[in-house]
Design a protein that fits this description.
single chain, 16 helices, D-Maltodextrin-Binding Protein, domain 2, alpha/beta, 2 domains, three-stranded antiparallel beta sheet, disordered N terminus
């Protein structure tokens, strides 16, 4: 009888110890990338992991290539909340194959979005402008800043990666033959400024842009349909490259935007890893948050607090009830 009691006590002690160990998150390092959307997500993760899961969460500076490389080679940081995987595709795949990295989920549920756009107020008046045929038919509507006989298409700034794809699709769509000139906006600020100026005056605008961005959070734009569908292979092998002798028309494929962790973290911190796999935002949600950040000159930390205070309906879906109660209490104490 004594031995049975002793065994039972040991089993109970073991189960209690295991449950206690599972609740202990310990120290967690999170890459705080140097662009707004990634910094916002990193700060949201820090707050929820610290206050909801009891982690000792620390943000460390990061960027796509050095963070990915460090996670593969050194096993740190533990979490990269927003990795644009296509830009480091081979490195991420090697890390996963070598069981050094694990994909938690998509931080942007729809992926990064690129395309040619027109202001929504133009489409409201003329729905045909959601198609490239409709755009070409109204080429003179899109006033050229210097040549009244030509239309204006605003491309991606020179030197940016998107310059290649925008120019190659400009050629594939034969926009020059249709009467459009490709306008180099000079910089990212020049491109966003051209949209802002058009919106202020409700003037026509046609050009390249991407999401999530503060600009598409502030100014409602409609993506132009090329009527081609998406050929991801051709986009990768030709449209996105300098040497693209015969570009064919294709819509931009969505860019995979993922949350990546070290495999050691995924195996040790299963509850926390499950949260990271659930936590995701749409482009519309992120566009709105980025617009708020820009308008209020807010950094990732302030924006995270704003999000947690004002978008409870979103983040409550990411965590179980016990975690949600702790996070709510921490928010109320801010």
């Amino acid at each position: 009888m004594k031995s049975m009691i002793l065994i039972g006590g040991l089993l109970l002690s073991s189960a209690t110890h295991q449950a206690f160990a599972e609740e202990q998150c310990g120290k967690v390092t999170i890459a705080d990338m140097n662009w707004s959307s990634a910094s916002l997500i990193a700060n949201v993760d820090r707050f929820i992991l610290e206050h909801g899961y009891g982690c000792e969460a620390e943000l460390i500076p990061g960027d796509t290539m050095p963070t990915s490389t460090s996670m593969v080679e050194k096993g740190e940081p533990d979490i990269a909340p927003e990795i644009w995987s296509n830009s480091v595709k081979e490195l991420i795949e090697r890390g996963v194959s070598d069981k050094r990295l694990t994909i938690a989920g998509n931080s942007l549920s729809e992926g990064g979005e690129e395309g040619f756009w027109v202001p929504q107020y133009m489409v409201d008046k003329d729905p045909s402008l959601t198609t490239i045929e409709g755009i070409i038919a109204k080429v003179k509507t899109f006033e050229h800043p210097e040549d009244p006989d030509r239309g204006a298409f605003y491309g991606c700034p020179a030197g940016w990666g998107c310059q290649l794809s925008a120019e190659n699709l400009y050629r594939a769509l034969k926009l020059s033959d249709a009467g459009f000139d490709l306008i180099d906006p000079g910089s990212g600020a020049g491109l966003s400024g051209s949209i802002a100026r058009a919106y202020e005056r409700e003037k026509p605008w046609f050009g390249y842009y991407w999401a999530p961005t503060a600009v598409l959070g502030k100014y409602k734009m409609a993506k132009v349909d090329f009527g081609s569908g998406t050929d991801a292979d051709h986009f990768r092998d030709c449209i996105a490259k300098v040497e693209c002798a015969e570009p064919k028309v294709t819509m931009y494929p969505s860019a995979l935007v993922q949350t990546v962790t070290t495999t050691a973290f995924a195996e040790k911190s299963t509850r926390e890893f499950e949260y990271l796999g659930t936590r995701s935002l749409t482009n519309a949600q992120m566009n709105g948050l980025l617009a708020w950040m820009e308008d209020n000159q807010a950094d990732g930390n302030i924006a995270a607090e704003y999000f947690l205070m004002n978008h409870e309906d979103t983040w409550l879906k990411w965590v179980p009830a016990d975690v949600a109660a702790k996070v709510k209490a921490a928010i109320e104490a801010l």
